[in-house]
Amino acid sequence: MVDDAEEFVVGCLALNASYEPLTIVPARRAVRLVLDGKAELLEADGSEPFRSERAELPCPVVIRLVRFVHVPRRFRRQVTNTFLFARDDYCCMYCGRHRSELRGRQFLTRDHILPTSRGGENTWDNVVTSCSSCNNRKGNRLPEEAGLTLQTEPSEPNYVHLVWAVRRVTPAQAKYVAMFYGPDAVEAVLAGASARPVPHGQSSIQA
Ligand SMILES: [Zn+2]
């Protein structure tokens, strides 16, 4: 599974056999899956086709796996800072400030609500985006012990929210996401995305 923001640069949306959007894979890997008969090409774009000794294939933007792949839930959407910050709209879940409002050397971090030192796990319902100031203030305490209040109850995000939050989905791919999740979900996410444009590549790595 692709779990690295850099992998999204050249992206082909990979669907399960059930048409569930699974992940974005590099176009070259998508070509390989199609040539190996493991996926079918659903959408291609007009850019330079891929050529090999065996075949020529237009650049894939959406593929569908031929056989259904059961992806264990825990492997599905791992908590990465890229996705975590996207889920929380790039805002500190304690003081509410957006990344653009942080001052000086402040930056976004990953906070474990129940600290790992006290048995807290790295799961979607135990992590939130926190500015470095709130995270330092909280230390190895629970929010209430540090006088902090969570703005929302964290939960595992919907894939479609994540892909739009990191803004890597083309209209051709959006069609398939909408097909699976329904047009309402897409509209809601698009409304959110246009309200707050987010630059790439500014996530900080700090647990
Ligand atoms: Zn904060």
Please characterize this protein's 3D structure.
28% of the residues lie in helices and 17% in strands. It is an alpha+beta fold and 207 residues long. Among the domains are: 5-74, no CATH class; 77-146, DNA Binding (I), subunit A (Orthogonal Bundle). Strands 2-1-6-3 form a 4-stranded mixed beta sheet, sandwiched between helices. A two-stranded antiparallel ribbon has the order 4-5. A hairpin with a 5-residue loop joins strand 1 (12-15) and strand 2 (21-25). Helix 5 (159-165) packs parallel to helix 7 (183-195) and helix 6 (171-181) crosses helix 7 (183-195).
Brief overview, please?
29% of the residues are buried. The chain is 28% helix and 17% strand. Among the domains are: 5-74, no CATH class; 77-146, Orthogonal Bundle (DNA Binding (I), subunit A).
How does the SSE layout of this entry go?
Layout: E1 12-15, E2 21-25, H1 27-35, E3 39-44, E4 50-51, E5 56-57, E6 60-65, H2 73-76, H3 81-87, E7 108-112, E8 127-131, H4 132-138, H5 159-165, H6 171-181, H7 183-195
Parallel strand pairs: 1-6
Antiparallel strand pairs: 1-2, 3-6, 4-5, 7-8
Helix pairs in contact: 5-7, 6-7
The structure holds zinc ion.
Residues 92, 94-95, 97, 130-131, 133-134 line the site of zinc ion.
